């Protein structure tokens, strides 16, 4: 029997010696979108960072599996090379490193082979056209002077180029107006057309991004745990009633 694409088994994680994730389990199969919703302080971003292997977050128990292989102790760069991707809530600027330089190094590491500048340039321009990005951004320093929407689209460009197996989108909708949100959501859907087996864990506060991406499953996270799971009807109930009904 084939293993699920991605599994989180009874995960507990700390940040700054404080227990934040308190026994969380989740199974993501190929091609599925799982939305995790929760209020501020529920542990969503800690979960994202722990899944990606950020050394500032410690997994104290439980396990993380990628296609049946335990990756719980793997460093972040090894997870990335294996096909894990994290889109940051607040993408960082890297002065002196152009988008095309960054992506050439990242794609070469992901493929474990040196990718030519010509191949990278061709792929970037192709994806920029699909994502509605100005081609001149390829020569600009990574995220330097980018608007919030441009930074988020650049994250989607990276996801497209790296062809991950699992993408964790940590509040990709944060700080975006409705038009920018739709552009980013269309970009995610465009990537999924090309990479139909991509599993997505979408972390968000708001229902509006779910209307654009239509997750297969919606989970509510409160105080470090998933307290409810369902379909889109769960997010609609949340929109009308808020989180109070699930707080304990």
CATH homology group of the domain at 6-90 and 164-246: P-loop containing nucleotide triphosphate hydrolases
Order of helices and strands: EEEHEEHEEHHEHEHEHEEH
In total, the number of strands is 12
Structural class: alpha/beta
Give the rounded overall mean pLDDT. 90
Spatial strand sequence of the major β-sheet: 6-9-10-3-11-12
Task: Give the helix/strand layout.
Elements: E1 6-15, E2 18-28, E3 33-37, H1 44-52, E4 57-66, E5 69-70, H2 76-82, E6 84-87, E7 94-98, H3 99-111, H4 117-131, E8 141-142, H5 148-162, E9 166-170, H6 178-194, E10 199-204, H7 208-213, E11 217-222, E12 225-230, H8 232-241
Parallel strand pairs: 3-10, 3-11, 6-9, 9-10
Antiparallel strand pairs: 1-2, 1-4, 4-5, 7-8, 11-12
Helix pairs in contact: 3-4, 4-5, 5-6
Detailed description of the structure:
It contains eight helices and twelve strands. The protein is of the alpha/beta class and 248 residues long. It has a domain at 6-90 and 164-246: 3-Layer(aba) Sandwich (Rossmann fold). The chain has a six-stranded mixed β-sheet, sandwiched between helices. It has a four-stranded antiparallel β-sheet with strand order 2-1-4-5. Helix 3 (99-111) crosses helix 4, helix 4 (117-131) packs across helix 5 and helix 5 (148-162) packs parallel to helix 6. The mean pLDDT is 90.
Outline:
With 248 residues, the protein is α/β, with parallel strands linked by helices. 37% of the residues lie in helices and 29% in strands.
């Amino acid at each position: 029997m084939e293993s699920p694409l991605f599994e989180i088994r009874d995960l507990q994680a700390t940040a700054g010696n404080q227990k934040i994730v308190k026994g969380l389990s989740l199974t993501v199969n190929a091609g599925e979108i799982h939305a995790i919703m929760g209020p501020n302080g529920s542990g969503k971003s800690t979960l994202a960072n722990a899944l990606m292997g950020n050394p500032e977050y410690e997994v104290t128990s439980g396990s993380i599996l990628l296609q049946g292989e335990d990756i719980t102790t793997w460093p972040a760069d090894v997870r990335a090379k294996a096909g894990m991707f994290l889109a940051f809530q607040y993408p960082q600027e890297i002065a002196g490193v152009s988008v095309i330089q960054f992506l050439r190094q990242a794609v070469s590491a992901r493929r474990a082979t040196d990718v030519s500048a010509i191949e990278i340039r061709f792929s970037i321009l192709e994806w920029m056209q699909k994502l509605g990005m100005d081609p001149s951004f390829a020569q600009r320093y990574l995220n330097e002077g980018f608007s919030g929407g441009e930074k988020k689209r650049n994250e989607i460009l990276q996801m497209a180029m790296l062809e991950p197996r699992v993408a964790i989108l940590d509040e990709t909708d944060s700080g975006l107006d409705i038009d920018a949100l739709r552009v980013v959501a269309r970009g995610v859907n465009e990537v999924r057309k090309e990479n139909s087996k991509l599993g997505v864990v979408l972390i968000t506060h708001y229902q509006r991004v779910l209307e654009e991406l239509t997750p297969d499953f919606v989970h509510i996270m409160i105080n470090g745990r998933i307290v409810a799971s369902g379909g889109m009807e769960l997010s609609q109930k949340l929109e009308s009633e808020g989180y109070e009904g699930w707080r304990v």
